[in-house]
Amino acid sequence: MAAPNANTYSSLSDLLTSEVLDPAVILLLAERNNIPRHPAIFMAEPVDAIGSATRKVSHVGLNSYDLPAALADGSTVPLTALTDGSSTLTVTRYTKAYGWTDLARMTLPDGRIDADILALDAVQSMNSRATDLICDVIDGFSTQSGPGTGTDLDVASVMALIGAGAVGNLPGPAFMGVIHGQQWSDLIVDGGTSIGSAGGGTQNYSAELAAMQTLQGTGYVGSWLGVDWFRNNRVKTANAAADRAGALFASGGVIGCLGMFVRGVDDPNNQVLVGGNSEEGNAGVILFERSRDAFSAETAFVSHAYMAWAKGVEAGITLISDA
Amino acid sequence: MARLQDGDEGTEAPASPDTPNVPQGATRPIGRFLLSSGAAEALDILPDVAGRPAEQDPYPRVPASPPFRLVYCADRWDVLEGHLIPQLYRLSFNPGVNGVSRGSGGAPDPTDALAAVDRQGHYALPWDIGYEGKPGEPRSYLRGFQVGVAQDRKTGAFVKVISWHTRFEQLYAGSEHIQSDTIGYVTWLSGLVQRGLLGQPRPYVIERLVRHYETRLGKELSKANGSAESANLYRQRLGVVRAWQEDLRAEQMQTPVAPLEEIEPVVATPEPVEPPSSPRGKR
User: Fold this and answer.
1) Is-contact A55 A47, C-beta < 8 A?
2) Cβ–Cβ of B225/A193 closer than 8 Å?
3) Which of B71, B178, B182 is facing A239, going by the closest CB pair?
4) Which terminal residue of chain B, N or C, has fewer Cβ atoms less than 10 Å from its own Cβ?
5) A259 to chain B: nearest residue by CA?
6) What ipTM does the predicted assembly reach?
7) Torsion of Cα atoms, A4 then A5 then A6 then A8, to 10°
8) Which region among A125-129, A308-312, B55-59 has the lowest average model confidence (pLDDT)?
9) Start-to-end Cα distance in chain B
10) Cα–Cα–Cα angle for A175, A180, A182, nearest 5°?
11) Cβ neighbours of residue A105 under 8 Å, at least 6 residues apart?
């Protein structure tokens, strides 16, 4: 027991404050792995300056789609009807805004939330939204594979999936596999326990994989059976949430279209393009801007991106297994 | 109900003449403890706890998700809960995906997306498919859960942030868990197939599933560390699809085969072949 009149933590209430912010922050948990630009995703030309927000991507049955017929000598060859089809990409705005009053901003410690951090958030969030939309597409291929609904994904099912891809004429050379974290977990458990070889199914460290993960993001879990596999928890549910619907797909299975802001920005003091790929020569596909409302002494940081995703041809197989 | 007072915790009760200090493990003296059950009497109190009461999160911690139509594809079937059911997928009314655009009023416009579904030979189930208006029967297979509140910047009005799911999924306040009622889902879907609102599985789909589960069962049984549970599951599913296969065969047996004369083969030829006017060639 403290002596009478001893100063305790609770008695010095005017000298102490109950909480002080730590200089570091911890991110709340979220799926931050994203599906990167990959040759298995067909990207249509951007919608900039084309006169419409909708792009129609044609499908055409050429290059061995129709085979020549054997005809008797002297007979007339009939015309072959050219098989065609199309997918529609309707580019839509995706946007997010954070706003602060002056009082809130001036009292915030430096470096906690500023324009740079919000620009980084804009890039990350837009990529996550794109991943979410792609996952909305890949659950709808006409061909499905997997161990069976409500059953854990296993090595045999993935091997059968590769075989189904070959039977289904999926065009190479680039193949992408996107599976949910639960599917990935079930797969490596099966790989590590059923095959009897730790190296068979579990992810081991290798310099090559680490280098690829630097490029492809941490959701990239390796290339196996000719497929680049990505684990992502934005993969959708199926069968009333009993299952997850990942997929294997090749170029043409998933198609996308972006708005690229090729005309630049109107107000460089308050607008900047971010999330670009310098190798492709574009400054950015996300417009990040500062919006000031003097009447309410409020500053908002707003990001916009324009994108569309759709199923193209049936160059994919939906992979359904237990959620 | 009394509350513990400061200092209650950790203070030693004064020794009672009835409870002599007996070393642990030693035989306790025969007294009133052995004559009763020995169960200590609990105090009817609650602990004093400092601090603010925790605020309960009123909304499920599930992200907002757009409404959708379930889509039937004749080639996608599997066994769930002992029933062969179509494997539906979701056509999300998510502007920017699969041709869904945003209408002039801001609502998603799925016209093009639904047309694309039709072109593929798939079928987007209406939300009230199979609804018969029975008391207590929900009209739609779709239902929305409020997962937050957002404020419209222009009007200042607060709008509900909705996450849409099938009615066979249950969300919980403060939790990201989604509870699946697979039995309800299977019952509903099987009913739609039985009533002819959705097509029956085609023979090749059933044959593919028979092969699939025969292979799975064979592999599971041949594994050194095979799971009896998995083997039973595959055996049960194989039984379901084989029963469908036998039913289909029985139907085919009962269906009279059309006479050959009535079958009109569709053969595309450049020109009809005229029989020669007089027989030629070697004899």
Assistant:
1) yes
2) yes
3) B182
4) C
5) B96
6) 0.83
7) 110
8) B55-59
9) 118
10) 135
11) A299
